[in-house]
Amino acid sequence: MPTRYIGRFAPSPSGPLHFGSLVTALGSYLQAKSCHGKWLVRIEDIDPPREVKGASSLILKTLETFHLFWDDNVLYQSACHERYQAVLQSLLSHHQAYYCDCTRQRVQKLPNGHYDGYCRHRHLKINQSQLAIRLKQNHPISEFTDKIRGLQTVETASAQEDFIIHRKDGLFAYNLVVVLDDHKQGITEIVRGADLLPVTAKQISLYKLFGFSLPSYCHLPLALDNNGNKLSKQNHAKPIELNNSKSLTALALQFLGQCLPKDWQDATQQQLLDWAIQHWQIAKIPKQNTQLPTNIR
Ligand code: GLU
Question: The domain containing residue 211 runs over which residues?
């Protein structure tokens, strides 16, 4: 029997959802539900300095207001440190990872801006100072296929880079924990924003290292501001208005290249979503990022 589809939405609680994150939530939800699958929510709260108080509960409340109801319990990454730590220890003891004291300035000055493996053979020890931990990249991924954007080729220096899996400020790196949790939650397909295309090959290399079965990937178009920047919590994108869920859902569906029922203004939020599940066509999703009208940014 084929594995049942399990998808997810994995917001970081660095602020309320904005139109761009609604597009990601809706796109991942519709893809999962149109495949008769489960849709999980994971709060990626691994970076306390960037966390905004109350953002996690506001994000969940926003999803509920939009009738984007998740299956199973929400997973909070802040509750998983022991599991992550055990993986780090195992990588270190098997010499698959190493400590590094190189500064960001040093790495930025390197010819292609990618780490050159300087600390690979220095055998630094943790108590010398605050050190980052890097993965020894023995499974470089030179290409992968995205279901929306097609074949993606990866620059050699980027593919071969020993990337950070634990930061020198003591925080776990996103690229490590996203893979550990997607695997733990049995995610079969990852639908997320195209800003994460550049790190996907690094994440696939971890699947290969751990021997995990690989999910498929769908990277959704990003919503851009006038300057061509991604709408983000950092550049103060407008929070989603909770009293306007149907119109925003309709806009997000159009943004994703989907059609709307003629009478959508008379439908309930649930009827609009049910219609969208029935008529969801991943092939219609635009392959490029798009600027948004100013009133919804
Ligand atoms: N937590 C990430 C974000 O909010 C998304 C991670 C992912 O979907 O892989 O941008």
Answer: 6-80+176-296
